[in-house]
Amino acid sequence: MTEQKPPAIRQLDALVDRLVPGVSAQRARQLRMVAGMFGRAVDREGMPPWAGPELARLFTQPVLQRFWKLAVAGELRHRAEDAGKPLPLATQRVVRDCLVILAEATVPGREVWLPTLGGVEPKPVVSPREQLLLYRKLADMAERGPWERDGTALSADDRARLLAMVGVVLDSGARSRELEQMRLDDLVDGGSAIRVVRRPQNATHLPLRVGVWALREGTQVAVRRWLGVRERLVADVEGAKTALWVSLRARGMRRGGVERSWPAGVPLGTYGIQSAYARGITALNWVMAGEFGWSPLPGRLEQLGRAVRAGLGEEPPRRVDRPRRLPGRPRAPLSAERVARAQELLEDPAVTVDEVAAAIGVSLETLYAQVPGVRDRPRSRSRG
How far apart are CA 270 and CA 264, in angstroms? Predict the structure, then answer.
């Protein structure tokens, strides 16, 4: 129950409630997940006993280090049956990104310890030459008859949607999530350009950016062809018909004993967009196999978009992760009052270095560098 939670956790829950209106639904779920992990960590063995009374203390180095060790080991999972299953690297990255957001909102400007993650090389992107080949071949094949080889086929409607979608990505660098959110009125200037609402990757707490990208002539033709197909597909759909990318076929799903069905022409979600691209590129690679100059293209839309965004100067090359400090003011000398407060606390032989750092709100690195006599004291309280 909420009233049984330590004050720091109640304050953290309230902070997340304030943050979620400004982030995506996915990031909101992730922030609540991390808040729940803190709630399960605060009373664990090894967690500093002073972590619970105040929110800012959760973002001191001793607390974060213990929290991270428990989290990575899978000891803070929500479901009891999953306890002890180590967090995969992708989930570790999500947790750390949430720590950045929460710490920035809690202790802005303060240096905060953050964990180091092992680097993962991104998958190869599509080269500029392959992008051009893809554009030309798709445009050419959209005019052909049946697209089929040894049982692998893609319908004319599939081809029309794939060409339009790939053309938009090649011209704007749009991600699958951004494609999902596109509406008809995002086609501007008579269909010669498209508006993309972009949120920086892995930083959903940052403001949205809206850009308008010119569409090449081939993309404009492809989009007009797709709009004709789309108009037929949405004719019998009830409600709003504003989504740019829609499904080609009716589909059904059984969940919890309940059968649900959707007609053709309903908006595509992120997964549907990624699947449509993957299916189309798989067929294209198979049909084009053996043709002079053709290299198999990667089956993930993300790899194509990342290559385009890099060419547009929007996405610098990724680097291996390393320890990070939160953006904010550069390190400044401690005030005389804070140094005096630290020395006053150190007069008590029972007080540890960790407790002094937490009390005056600085990192251990800063404390060691600027307060005399700290190195002669034990860092943490030993447990018998």
Answer: 16
Which contacts qualify for 92-98: CB closer than 8 Å, 24 or more apart? 92/117, 93/117, 93/202, 93/321, 94/30, 95/30, 95/33, 95/34, 95/37, 95/71, 97/30, 97/202, 97/203, 98/27, 98/30, 98/31, 98/33, 98/34
Q: Is 259 helix (H, G, I), strand (E, B) or coil?
A: strand
In the numeric block, the tokens 């269909």 are attached to 191
User: Smallest Cα–Cα separation from 306: which of 121, 163, 160, 154?
Assistant: 121
Provide the token pair at 295: 């290299």
| 28-46: average pLDDT | 91
Residue pointed to by tokens 């993957």: 278
Q: 254 - beta bridge partners?
A: 259
Question: pLDDT, tens digit, for every residue of 289-339?
Answer: 766 667 777 778 888 887 787 666 555 443 334 444 444 444 456 777 778
For the chain, the structural domain boundaries read: 2-119+321-328, 128-311, 331-384
Nearest to 158 by CA among 172, 177, 178, 144: 144
pLDDT for 227 equals 95
pTM of the model: 0.53
Q: How many C-beta atoms lie closer than 10 Å to residue 205's C-beta?
A: 19
To which CATH superfamily is domain 128-311 assigned?
A: Intergrase catalytic core (1.10.443.10)
Q: Which residue has the tokens 């063995």?
A: 45
Structure tokens at 110: 């303060």
Q: What is the per-residue pLDDT for 327? A: 46
Dump the DSSP string for 158-204.
HHHHHHHHHHHHHHH---HHHHHT-BGGGEEGGGTEEEEEE--TT-T
Amino acid symbol at 159:
R
Instruction: Look up residue 202 and give its amino acid.
Output: N
Asked whether the beta carbons of 134 and 126 are under 8 A apart, the reply is: yes
CB 246 within 8 A of CB 156: no
Of the candidates 244, 268, 269, 273, the residue with the CA atom closest to the CA atom of residue 186 = 244
